[in-house]
Amino acid sequence: MSNAQGRLTAARRRLIAARGLLTTARGVLQLVNGVLLFINDVQPVDFRFKLFYIFTTVISINIFLEIDMNTTPEHDKKIAAITFAAVFPHYIAKIEKKGRTREELLQVIKWLTDFDEPELQELIQKNVTFETFFQLARVHPNAHLITGAICGYRVEDIENPLTRNIRYLDKLVDELAKGKKMEKILRDA
Length: 189
Known about the structure:
Blueprint: H1 3-40, H2 46-65, H3 73-80, H4 84-97, H5 102-113, H6 117-126, H7 130-136, E1 149-150, E2 153-154, H8 161-177, H9 182-185
Antiparallel strand pairs: 1-2
């Protein structure tokens, strides 16, 4: 098991334990409130439940935020070694399955990398890795505006520049496949 998988597994165990505590504490509070209602014939006190829910939500968020969602050096090396030619057909299949066109995909890639179709075809024929692909690319100055999660990572939080650029491309292809308008995909602020 890799270090990242171990951290993720430990974080999941903490989250499951927190959910168990939440369920147990909620049951205890409901029992106490029921006993008070029965014995004293008083109105239920909603503020206790509201405070409890706020408290448990804060705990859950803190546990979730402790998960280190950054990539590992092994992951970065592995993803850098993938050839663009191996992934490009999958990009085409993904967007065409959702009703988008190859030309739209090329437009998105052109925006991010400044590669036109003949340059892309040449890179595909040369079977370049993503590392070489992005070394040759002129990444758009607004690429930093690409945010959100892709493949389990928040792209804006990825520290390795190459991995971040690869995930930027994945995110743009994903947005295209999801039907987002081109004006929003091409972040020209």
